[in-house]
Amino acid sequence: MEKICRNTLVAWQKSMNVVEQVYRLTDTFPRRETYGLIGQMRRAAVSVPSNIAEGQAHYTNAEFCRFLRLARGSLAELETQLMISERLNYAAAPQAKCLLGHINEVSRIISGLISSLQDK
C-alpha cells in the first residue's frame, strides 16, 4: 500500500507540472483561441491532478481506479489537443515534444497505479 501511496503522490506532482506547462504554453496562443483550444487544453490538464486527488479520497480501490481512468482519459484528450496546436503552429515542435513526453510519463504512472490497485 505504501508504494501505491508514493506512486499516487508522484503522479499527482507530475500532473501538476503538466498543468503548469500547459498554462505557460497556452499563454502564447492567439487570443481568438481563449474559448476554444486554450480552454479545452487547460480544462483537460487541470482534470488530471483533480481526478487523482478525488479518487485517492475515496474508500475503495474500484472507485480510485475509476477516477484514475478518468485522469488517463483527460491525458489522451490533452495529447490530441497538443497535436492540434502543433499542427496549427501555435506550439513549436520542440515544446510540444517535451510536453508530450511529460504527458506520456504521467499516463504510464497512472496505468501502473491502476494495475496495482486491480491486483489487490
What does this structure look like?
The radius of gyration is 15 Å and the shape is elongated. About 85% of the residues lie in helices and about 0% in strands. The termini are close together. It has helices at about 1-25, 35-55, 60-85, 95-120. The protein is mainly alpha-helical. The chain has a single domain (about 1-120), classed as 23S rRNA-intervening sequence (de novo design (two linked rop proteins)). The mean pLDDT is about 95.
Question: Can you give me a brief rundown of this structure?
Answer:
Helices cover 84% and strands 0% of the residues. The chain is mainly alpha-helical.
CATH H-tier superfamily? 23S rRNA-intervening sequence
Query: How helix-rich are the residues, as a percent range?
Result: over 70%
Cα separation of the termini: 9 Å
Biggest beta sheet summary: none
The secondary structure category is: mainly alpha
- The average pLDDT score comes to 95
Characteristics:
mainly alpha, de novo design (two linked rop proteins), 0% strand
